[in-house]
Specification:
Blueprint: E1 19-22, E2 34-36, E3 40-47, E4 58-66, E5 69-74, H1 81-87, E6 97-104, E7 110-125, E8 138-144, E9 147-152
Antiparallel strand pairs: 1-6, 2-5, 3-4, 5-8, 6-7, 7-8, 7-9
Length: 154
């Protein structure tokens, strides 16, 4: 098919640098430097049927396992949202939220969305401090969740 310059003939992958994160619970969208770890894995169950003639293992799909999502962002004055959420964790009680990660196009429209269900903070790493450094202070938030759903716009 000839390329006539129409938009339908040009298909490009989405750039990954324009995104926003909604941490739920009425918080406004939070700007992050980096989000990683949005993965899912089906554990494998291996067994051998006693009626099978071959000496080989049959593989079946087992429990679904979701990786922890790691988010990095700059440290801002009077912004303790991560620490406040983490402080809500008490013996056997965790405030779980629905976290939504949105990949945006050049005009800010959502093109792809990852939804983390029953998410809660498992780890917060504060910035390192160096007297001779000139980098921005960055903190890290690690979130555990029970389900990852991906939606494409359009």
């Amino acid at each position: 098919m000839a390329d006539d310059g129409s938009e339908q003939d040009t298909v490009w992958p989405f750039p990954k640098f324009y995104f926003e994160v909604d941490l739920g619970s009425g918080m406004t969208s939070v700007a992050f430097q980096e989000v990683s770890g949005m993965d899912v894995e089906n554990q494998i169950i291996e067994y051998r049927k006693n009626t099978r003639a071959e000496f080989s293992i049959e593989k079946m799909s087992g429990i679904v396992k979701y990786g922890n999502v790691t988010m990095k962002r700059g440290v801002f004055l009077n912004d303790n949202a991560f620490w406040d959420w983490h402080a809500e964790i008490a013996m056997n009680t965790i405030t779980r939220r629905t976290v939504i990660i949105k990949l945006l196009d050049e005009v800010g429209k959502v093109t792809m969305q990852w939804t983390l269900e029953n998410a809660w903070p498992t780890k917060i790493t504060s910035t390192d401090l160096k007297s001779d450094g000139n980098e921005v202070a960055v903190e890290l938030l690690e979130i555990a969740h029970e389900k990852l759903t991906i939606n494409n716009a359009g």
